[in-house]
Amino acid sequence: MSSRDAVLARIRAALVDVPADEAVDGPRPSEASPPRARVARDAVLPLLVEHLRDYRAVVHEVAPDELAGALAEALRRRGCKSVIVPPGTPVAWIAETDGIELLDDTTPLTVDRLDAADGTVTGCAVAIAETGTIVLDAGPGQGRRALTLVPDYHLCVVHAEDVVASVPEAFPRLDARRPLTWISGPSATSDIELDRVEGVHGPRTLEVLLVRPTPGR
Amino acid sequence: MSNGSAFLGLPAFPGAAREAVGNAQLRHNLRKATHTIRSKRAAVVGELDDWEELRAAGKAVKDHTLRHLDHYLVRLEEAVTAAGGHVHWAADADEANRIVTELVRATGGHDVVKVKSMATQEIGLNEALEAEGIRAYETDLAELIVQLGDDRPSHILVPAIHRNRSEIREIFLREMAAWGEPAPDDLTDEPRVLAEAARRHLRKRFLTAQVAVSGANFMVAETGTLVVVESEGNGRMCLTLPETLISVVGIEKVVPTWQDLAVFLQLLPRSSTGERMNPYTSMWTGVAPSDGPRNFHLVLLDNGRSRVLADEVGRQTLRCIRCSACLNVCPVYERAGGHAYGSVYPGPIGAILTPQLRGTTSELDASLPYASTLCGACYEVCPVAIDIPEVLVHLREQVVEGGGHRAERAAMKAAGWIFADPARLARVQRVAGRARRIVPRRLPGPGAAWTDTRDLPVPPEQSFRDWWAAERGRPTTPRSNP
Amino acid sequence: MRVGLFITCVNDTLYPRTGQAVVRLLERLGCEVDFPAEQSCCGQMHWNTGYGKQIEPLVRRFADTFAGYDAVVTASGSCGAMVRDNHPKAAARAADPTLPEAVAAVVPQVYDLSEFLVDVLGVTDVGAYFPHTVTYHPSCHSLRLMNLGDRPTTLLRNVRGLELRDLPGAEECCGFGGTFALKNPDVSAAMCADKVRHAVGTGAEVLCAADNSCLMHLGGTMGRQRSGVRTLHLAEILASTEEFPA
């Protein structure tokens, strides 16, 4: 007998008390309770900002037409000379980055090039207010996972339309088949006396540009 | 459950705990750390007014999955395979170690980077790889501290919780050079500086690693997605940069659907690190084109879990999501420390999981179900509502049925005989009452365990039942049982 | 209201004053109190130590002894919890097929003293007088299994002359745990030392709880240390009056 068959046989033998007709694919317990409205709609964006800051992310709120300027300003303030721009990044975002080298990852950059870059600019798939979380799904304008991992600085553009209130609301918007990275603040550790310290292996600075809703939409 | 050799031949819990209780530095470190995380957890759990509903949902999802575990594992296997991953099944620790060793050998590499994983600790993977000439580098900060210090883990979330900052500084200064990038000479004991030293120590290793070994916090049967929850980014490094990723995961880690995962991503971080969300969570499904490892292997580990599943009371233990909230509130863990539990799983969850995985034949394992006052603090904080006291008592019955302790068995029998008949009880009470003037300050033998630190209660001249009979004129003793 | 007093074997043998206090208190509040002498022990020590399969006769005895009372009142949180939570479990696997029904009939009538006072009698001021400083240890089974909540402290706050002092780390176990105190004496003593330090630190004259087993452990330690703090069961403070001081 293969180990696969042996393990499955042991499991089936262990479950003799479970009635053979017990439904496997009934209503999911997680769906039985309706999505909770813990956060009022107009409180969602302020809560995201508060919770991002709580875990030491730097946050700026900008109007849509201020984005290019704010993005360039953030990179200059940080002193970035070269930043990675994932394939599919809207040209409008990077329109004012004169003097900063933009590294294109269409042909994958080597790990050493990633390590030498001053930072990465991305969008995101979803952001979650209740937890201060940004989710990347490696889609256009986000790129492969290594881009937001190796450089020490991550500048992330979040559109108000992509912000949900709670964790359960994020799941239907995400495709499990894509590689997903959930980011809540810069990397951190509590391994020394359970004292939280920001900045270990991942980017030590996370900066977020939250683009307010387009008026009239 | 075979174990890392580090845990072989350890004394039973009471003896090991005695040493820990006497170690003032350890007591101080543990008290500070557990009380810090306790209040952080309470604060973020308090933010959600539907915590109890979430907890019930977590319990329900896990129970449902366990009752149909074969079904969901087969679905998971199909989904992972369809997404370009390879699934292996390991009946026990030896088989899992053999599979991983062969997979690493096939890559031609001689070292691996590791994401913190309880399953690989449980099977003693690092030692097994070492014996085959493959070196495993732990990359989680606390695991690194344990590995560099040639130490044993003492906590599920923070394996080096028993070390304070100055001890960690000394370990880094002394040991880092032998494992790679040395610690800087001007290293201080500031946590920020120590974290920076770990970053520098591991940086090059991450960027050049060819093979990574991880566990997983969750696996989604519906989609074949694996999930690793972490803080430092070492997990992302291991899961993203190498060519080959091998994940060793206990069979109980599967959840049915994508949406089910939402329940646990709310329960776990708040229970574990006391955060609304941990800094990084990685989710991957098989192999992604031009992103991350090109080879992905999932090793599904039984190693005693199917035996736990067969016990209808013990089965709930498999709901555990390894958050360690039970350790952080346990008054026994706080004083005894993690090493006393003689397993990679310390604290209340270890006291029920280890004896079920390993059996209760050794003196150590048979002592674990008794390493609790049954105070219930663990059950109260468990995010998947494992009734740890209930399982402890259940396992105590197994220890007793396996032979137990002869003197204790005799004492219980005698007590049962007295309580079976109130007339007998009344006679015993009167004898005790007459002997009240000669209650000793210290008892010999097992009784010394009480009188070493406490006075004995002095029996009253008259028991309650004799007082009642005298005052209320009822018969002193009821009819004796035949 | 006809109340059956479930005294518990420890109180019966070692702490008759607690039982006497319960009788005095309940009679003062107008209850008819009976002590059915057929009672012995709830089986908690056996159950918690792994000898649960031996307690069937004790479960049967309890169910028969206390059948038919309007309420069964106990002054031990852990014994009350044993009956409520574990007698049904023990009955479910008993040889006697009629036991589950007998247990199910009696369990809903079982109350801890403070529960009975607050929930059944609807009293939070029992007319007691106790001119002393007191700190209250909630004890684990009273707190987490009987879910007594703030009933005991509400009752204490309404005692005339009594000053209640908050006990730091109140919800933490005192380290008794039945046979735990003998099987793991070092950890037990370390837990007790912390609890005693907190209690003594409040400056209270009396350490109060709703479970004499915990108080035996705490009082035994404080006695050995000559701390000067005395232990008293909640019932004794609530029964205390100017005429009959505790």
List the helices and strands and how they pair.
The complex is a heterotrimer of chains A (217), B (482) and C (246).
Chain A lengths: L2 H12 L14 H4 L11 H11 L3 E5 L4 H12 L3 E4 L15 E4 L6 H6 L2 E4 L3 E3 L4 E4 L16 E7 L3 E2 L2 H4 L9 E4 L4 E2 L7 E2 L6 E7 L6
Chain B lengths: L12 H9 L2 H23 L4 H17 L1 H14 L3 E5 L2 H15 L3 E4 L3 H5 L2 H7 L3 E4 L2 H8 L16 H15 L11 H18 L2 E4 L3 E3 L4 E6 L3 H7 L3 E7 L3 E2 L4 H13 L7 E6 L9 E7 L3 H6 L14 H5 L1 H6 L10 H12 L4 H5 L9 H5 L6 H14 L4 H14 L2 H13 L13 H4 L12 H9 L10
Parallel strand pairs in B: 1-10, 2-3, 2-4, 4-7, 5-8, 7-10
Antiparallel strand pairs in B: 5-6, 6-9
Chain C lengths: L1 E5 L2 H6 L1 H13 L3 E3 L9 H6 L6 H10 L5 E4 L2 H16 L6 H8 L3 E3 H8 L12 E4 L3 H6 L5 H7 L5 E3 L14 H4 L1 H17 L4 E4 L2 H14 L4 E4 H6 L7
Helix pairs in contact in C: 4-6, 5-6, 11-12
Protein model, in words:
- The complex is a heterotrimer of chains A (217), B (482) and C (246).
- Chain A has 217 residues and is an alpha/beta fold.
- Chain A has a single domain, classed as NagB/RpiA/CoA transferase-like (Rossmann fold), CATH 3.40.50.10420.
- Chain A has helices at residues 3-14, 29-32, 44-54, 67-78, 111-116, 167-170, and strands spanning 58-62, 82-85, 101-104, 119-122, 126-128, 133-136, 153-159, 163-164, 180-183, 188-189, 197-198, 205-211.
- In chain A, the strands form three sheets. In chain A, strands 1-12-7-4-2-3 form a six-stranded parallel beta sheet, sandwiched between helices. A four-stranded mixed beta sheet of chain A has the order 8-5-6-9.
- Chain A is globular, with a radius of gyration of 21 Å.
- Chain B is 51% helix and 10% strand.
- The longest helix of chain B has 23 residues, at 24-46.
- Chain B has helices at residues 13-21, 24-46, 51-67, 69-82, 93-107, 118-122, 125-131, 141-148, 165-179, 191-208, 234-240, 260-272, 305-310, 325-329, 331-336, 347-358, 363-367, 377-381, 388-401, 406-419, 422-434, 448-451, 464-472, and strands spanning 86-90, 111-114, 135-138, 211-214, 218-220, 225-230, 244-250, 254-255, 280-285, 295-301.
- Chain B has 482 residues and is α/β, with parallel strands linked by helices.
- In chain B, the strands form two sheets. A six-stranded parallel beta sheet of chain B has the order 1-10-7-4-2-3, with helices on both faces. In chain B, strands 8-5-6-9 form a four-stranded mixed beta sheet, sandwiched between helices.
- In chain B, helix 3 crosses helix 12 and helix 9 (165-179) runs parallel beside helix 10.
- With 246 residues, chain C is of the alpha/beta class.
- Helices cover 49% and strands 12% of the residues of chain C.
- In chain C, the strands form two sheets. Chain C has a four-stranded parallel beta sheet, sandwiched between helices. A four-stranded parallel beta sheet of chain C has the order 6-5-7-8, with helices on both faces.
- Chain C is globular.
- Chain C starts with a strand and ends in a 7-residue tail after the last helix.
- The mean pLDDT of chain C is 96.
- The interface between A and B is large, with 73 and 96 residues.
